[in-house]
Design goal:
The protein is 63% helix and 13% strand. The protein is α/β, with parallel strands linked by helices.
Length: 196
Amino acid sequence: MAIRDRVVLADEDDVWRKHIAAVLTKAGFLVIGEASDGITALKIVRARQPELVVADVALPGMSGLELARIIYEDRIAPVVLTANTWQQDVLEKAKEVRAFGFLVKPVDEAILLPAVDIALAQYHEVQRLQNEVRRLKEALETRKVVERAKGILMETLGLTETEAYRRIQKQSMNRRLSMRAVAEAIILAHGVGEKK
């Protein structure tokens, strides 16, 4: 069986951790770290960069909720939280810290594995969407810079919009630079020229 994803487990209860480690290992996951407190768990997660973290809400030192919040903000991995009892306020806090799952103990294979698979799928989708947003923002910024540079060329050299665009494009190819880099150089040169 191929190894699926690397997992870190965090729970004060050693017996429970060993049980979950056995379930995940049987399903093809690789448990790369275990911790009995939140601070140790965070150190392991940052050092080993797992694809998944399963943590108890009530970890000593640093709660599982705080651990989940930090891991989410650092964009390391999805966190599936576990708890001994179900409480609405804890569930609300789990949502706030962007946990990708919440399970009430006892947790067996039939409950854990689907929750883990869904958490991983949702996390990958969130990452894909974040990357797409970043790419679109970058494209928009590039377009704004190129438009500004075209305007400068049209104004200073009397070029048409098409001619100004082609000039930036040609410089980009000749210098093996991105169109954004060429456009930024035009804007910078125009700004320096203006100040004289």
